Fold these 4 entries.
Entry 1:
Amino acid sequence: MPATTNVEAKPSNGKQIDRTALEARLVRELDGGRAALPILPHVAAQAIRFANDPNSDLRKLAEMVEADPPIAARLLAVANSVIYTRAVRVSSTRLAIIRLGLEGTRDLLFQVVYASSTVGLPRYQDLVIRSFRRSVLCGVAARLVSDKMRYRFEYDYLCGLLHDIGEARIYRILANYKEAIDPALLEDLVTRYHRRAGAELAIAWGLPEPIIETCAHHHDDPEKASRLVKMVMMADVLVAMLERRQAVASMAAAVATLAPSAAEGPTSADGATPASPPATLPSSTEAEMATALDGAPGPTDAGAALGPTSAIWPTSLTDPSGAPEPTSATWPKENDAPANRAPSSSSALPVVAAPVVATAPAAANTETSAEPTPEDRDAADFARLATLGMDRELADTILVKLDEAIADLPV
């Protein structure tokens, strides 16, 4: 579920591209079959073969990994992250592979390859990195779901990790267009075409069929989805819930840091507390809260995220929606009475020279227009998990383990 907050959309010529023309151009590039297709390193391709061969030689795999220094360095760094170390660090690629096992090495090699494909974009770099980090967490969640639901799929981690890899491909294609792309249109195109883009990439890389299936079908009707695809759907929902809860917790912590200073207030030499204007958020706290909101997903619908494309975001920095036009009856006229004029005895009401402050009309039905609370969104996601076959108790258990894993996410 791509996000569009903080989207860089500043092309060199500033020209806005037509939606129909943009989509047609994107489809033509995808139809060509080679647009933004990163080459799969030889060591990653061989890792799949090694993992499926019970007679594989770990030493040979280590030699192949070491032949690609950037991949070897990253694999060693990830293998030494807290989630894998058990408090004992390894100093060689061979020891890292022994610790991880063939399947674990295969999975992390693809994670490293995926990470390398997220850099070097002229635009949308932050969105691609966010998509990648979320994909790593989905890989961890998919493995937890596979284990707790007793699925035991061979490629559970890779299915969770790579199911949204098409997002990075679409962003890379669109980032090379010189024209400006509206953030809402950008999100829509990524949402609608990332499945196709991801499945084509998985096929080009020669990945196993289960991974291709999850790339292509993870947004299908849950009732018709296979258990493998449902596993990825569950992982998606659980990650969205965890990220939302963390964003809310970050906001609450930021607000809590203001409470003591705001309550105490400054004191004068005689001990009295002088009157002062209301406390404002420090700029650093504002940035932290903005970052927390920025990363917070909406409900399961990607388009409901709070941001410049949402219905409640201000479209003007001058007047609120519904403010009177300069020609309306509530706007001050050139011949209006001067300010502070005392009312005459014959006047029933004082003359007001200042313009009337207009506010947006209240919603007719507050129940339907109110923004869903985090509790409402959690309830909707628990209901969706139930339709996929996961009860609330198991979901809470996996969320706890996922929260522990994210503390040292190996990205």
Entry 2:
Amino acid sequence: MQPPACRHVLPFILLAAVLTTPVLAGQGADFSVVLLPDTQLYSEKFPDTYVAQTEWIRQRVASERIEFVIHLGDVVQTATVEQEWKNADRAHRVLDGMVPYSVLPGNHDGAPGETELFNKYFSPARFHCCPWYGGHMGETNDNNYCCFNAAGMKFLVLSLECHPRDETLAWASEVVQRYADRRVIVATHAYMNPKKRLDSGQRIFDQLVRTNENVFMVVCGHIGAAVQKTATNDAGGQVHEVLCDYQNRPNGGDGWLQLLRFVPDENQIRIEAYSPLFAEHTDAPTPVGTLEYDMSDRELAPASGRRFTRLGKLRLRRGCRAWRLLPSGRRMRCCGR
């Protein structure tokens, strides 16, 4: 029932194979990842604010070089109220086909385990046509992963349900190890408060983060604050932990979100808070800062035998919103109407 997140309407296309490595605009080009925290009160009471956030992202994909958007969970206030999910769907339709994004269920969305409406509106079917969508655990989208490339580097965003279970963390670890050539951002809803990790956050750190050295960042919401900390994994590497949640501010959060601006030539990630309702970049209402992150070694591991192939000009059937390259690499199929 839901449109693919990668929908496009194109009468003709000239295809170069949609594989693992896109053309790079510049090895040192700055780029951004957006954190979209706890939209629960927007879905419940202020749906236009939610749309204002995604409209701002859509309009600035090029100027801010936004490569990915991560929703941090608690999409809605009450998991069983379908109108709230319709409001959230309306907001995310703005992003569909414009920028890759991931969504994960928070406790208000029914996680863990009671996520029927989350999966009605944000199921794997919504994303399965998208070349950046990697996959999911089991039959639901409660735990999923996506890939993107930027500035000569390969990234993976691993989105986990609120309070992930042991089997979820075992699956997550397998995914991270399978993509050992990618820099991993783990996203989950409840991980830390301003002082320390929550119990579920400590389990995530112990069973997943500390033992996989390609995990360099964990991002979360749930607790009303904006805080950054740095931990050390078992290999001696740094892991940045970022808490971002503005729901305790007026009007459900006043539309605040965060940009993680990667500056490879300076080995920095600069965090900026922004609200489209106030139309200004600012360090308020809570401190944001700069994280040191080594991006000097940007060499990509060879793709697993997959190469770019020019397929020629294809005439696409009318009425199809999205197309997917079949494994043979020579045919397309319609996967969204």
Entry 3:
Amino acid sequence: MKKQASYILCILLLFSLIPIPTAHATVPLSESAVVIDFDTGEVLYNRNMNARLTPASLTKIMTAYILYEEIAAGNLTKDSLIPISPNAFYMNTVIDNRAPFSEGASYTVNTFLQLIFLPSSNSGTVAIAEYLSGTQEAFAERMNETAARLGLNAQYETAHGLWGNNEKTAHCVAVLIRHLIRNHPDVLQYSSLESFLFYDTEYFNINRLIFDSEEIDGFKTGATVAAGYCLATTAIRDGRRIIVVTMNASSRDAAFVDSQVLLEHGFAELEYRNMAVNLDLPDDIAAEEPEELVTSTLHPGIWIGALGGIVIAAGICIFAVISSIFKKRKDI
């Protein structure tokens, strides 16, 4: 009986040394963040999502939206040519030469959409604004009118977001992206592009997340000193799409890390809410919106220490078994 008890104690000792991950709260590094369900528009995560912040190049999403409105109205096609205005050329040569233009040249709408989503051309949006509205100021008025029509909490002063009194909330950025994808789904062909050629120069997508997962198919990056690092991302998994927006992170890496964590959280939340509906859980439980994300982590040193403890405990158990065998033989 004592021998059996010693075996049981050895087994319990081994299991007690196996480390159990502990949950801790991971707060996004960005000042503002939101995750929404594309199908319903429901908020799956919220951190200061209604704070009006400087959006940097996320401003260009509205410029692209208006460009698509012109296509839908029959005023433009993807092959329509938009000329490079003197203001756009000046900005391109003196301030923003991410994708150098030729003076007096014209480029297709298709090219301008690529320029917006990949090198994030500021001067390209100036050309679009002046072609569609005559002046940049008039185009900003149209941006604000469009925002009001869509119910967005936003203010626009420039088409590019490099400077100007532009303010948007993370939530309104997500809602605008939802409108854009729902009404013009082929925009994902541009936001998911890894690269494109312009004057024999290959420009790569600044949103590096699209290179990490086939589920991620855009959407837009933005960064200035005033705005910090902003990132809008969308992904689809098992037929469900979510949109993530983070604003004013302290670094580009922080924005990418936040977005990756929030993407996983968003899909997990969708799965949980679907399970809650199937189990007929109370609505107040299914609709909770956590302010912090909970992740399970364990320091590698703990695993190494636990492994060493398991080896020692196993040795003790083996020694006990061998000793028992020898004792049994001696008694015989």
Entry 4:
Amino acid sequence: MSLRIGGELRASRRRGPKRAANGRPFIFHDRSIGMNCRRCGTPLQKPGDYCLTCNTANADAVVAEFDADRARLTMLDEDAVVGETTITTRPEDAERLTEVQLRNFAGRVADEIRRKRPETVYAAGEREPLRETRAQLHHEFYRVPDGGATGSGGASGGNGDAATDGAPDDDGADASPVVQWVLDRRGDRSLAVVETPPREKIGGSHSTLIGDRKGRKAVQTVAEHPHVKKIVPGPIDAGGTGSRTGLRAKATRAGTNGNVRLLLRDGSSVQENRIVTTAMDRETGERVREDLNEALREAELQDV
């Protein structure tokens, strides 16, 4: 095949499919029904893609479900499911992904999410690819609690490195438990997002934290949550029961005003820190508490 460019006849170079670290290509098997931009009607390459013609988002949220060798992305527009994409890879040793494979796999997932330009990303499943994908994105990102992911089973599909697209029924009837968990909460009142840098959220008359580096890591993890406004460290109680598991952190039950407590325990020392959130009542405060505990588990500051 040849192309005429600037009066010259040049041979075009057909680009092959993008390949994973193990040499297998990421191949797109298009089985989508097709979707047009909801504003201008321009055909979209994939369901839920951001329209570059009229600068309109066609999906306001993406749900990512991770297994060790695949990730299924479900695109949502309010309460409707507008599309699905499955990205698969295969570990070289048939057990775990290498560091390079993990980074490349997460990069493909992150690229697919960026195509949609969603407001929010929800994620569940295998922790390593989830954590690496989150590190490569700058979106509002929530970890679906393990209870919400029960029975998800990840994405279905063939073997090899591939990405499969589809546009399922928009009523969510066949949605996985993870997607259904998100849909059930899409109608809830949205919480305000705090733009304050995490370091500036920490204050109060007590500046000492137990656990040294791990204690600071726990507080930093909580401070990074978009619905946390302020963290007020509390006094240290050294009269607790001793523990040999090292520092453990836990967000406790929300109060009627939506605020929660961060309980730090290191040996016989216990510290209760107040967390001011943007939640307006106990119910929405419990949503924030679930997110915080998931983040603390990801940071290996809680027992799984």
